[in-house]
Design a protein that fits this description.
The protein is α+β, with helices and mostly antiparallel strands and about 90 residues long. The protein is built from 4 helices and 3 strands. Strand 1 (about 30), helix 2 (about 35-40) and strand 2 (about 45-50) form a beta-alpha-beta unit.
Length: about 90
């Protein structure tokens, strides 16, 4: 199951365990944001995340390019793609 943030992913993992399900054997859990607790608790939560510094740099570069009459960098879409951090919950 995919959750909109890691905190909810951790709650989901606990709820699945409380219901007698094993994570990830019976149901996988994936969060978003790469919260530090996701790595600390067991099972460690698989998550997705964006690099904020990389995103800010890409926006600044894009604005600069557009103001200079240039086209957007074709690699810009790749920067906006979330990165998967695989841990033991999925």
């Amino acid at each position: 199951m995919y959750t909109y943030n890691d905190e909810f992913g951790l709650v989901l993992t606990q709820a699945l365990t409380d219901a007698g399900l094993r994570v990830p054997e019976d149901s996988a859990a994936i969060g978003t944001d790469n919260h530090p607790l996701g790595a600390a608790l067991r099972p460690a939560l698989t998550t997705t995340c964006l690099d904020p510094a990389e995103g800010v740099a890409a926006v600044a570069s894009s604005v600069e390019r557009l103001l200079g009459g240039e086209r957007l960098d074709p690699g810009l879409a790749e920067i906006a793609r979330p990165r998967l951090v695989t841990r033991s919950s999925a």
